[in-house]
Amino acid sequence: MEQCSFLTFQPAPSYARQFIFRLRLETVLFTDTMHSHRLGTDEQVLCIKVLDLEISEITRERRLLAVVGTAIVQGEDLSPKGCIYIFDIVTVVPEPDRPETNRKLKLVVREEVKGAVTAVSSIGTQGFLLMAQGQKCMVRGLKEDGSLLPVAFMDTQCYVTVAKELKGSRMLVLGDIAKGIWFAGYTVSGNPHHRFGTRCPSC
Hints:
Layout: E1 5-11, E2 20-27, E3 35-41, E4 43-54, E5 62-72, E6 81-91, E7 103-114, E8 117-123, E9 128-133, E10 136-142, E11 148-155, E12 160-165, E13 171-176, E14 180-186, E15 193-199
């Protein structure tokens, strides 16, 4: 995966009273889109990060993957749902006279979850993924069959808007709009997810 590639999203044409967005892979060297992935109806991207994740429980191989969290909002009277996408950016044979099309988004994981996916981050030294979905945070591990194995979770009682890992540890800082900043971590045994402290906006 080269640093010159980046992801954006924009509305696709829709003549109904619904929104349809596309996730686009672009490069700073060309103005054309290299590849795109169409999202579901009324599905909007809330977070995008490129993370170093473990892709095999057997070989412990790790790879840089694009992780996308979305929300499916269909009105104020329905609870929002969300999806977690994991893409690999692979090299392909470009189209004739279009050398910029030599990269493509390869879908590795798509999983629909309860609640919007509002923040993602890597965590720990094992290549796990942390995702904030609804009013909880989940630590998940990517398996060879393309599924996400739950490792730990923590109830937050509100929506997390940002997650920052402390590199080389199992600890991270979470931010939300109501309770301020959280300092949390997880262990592989016992109570899997701990909250160490909270700083409220009024403190």
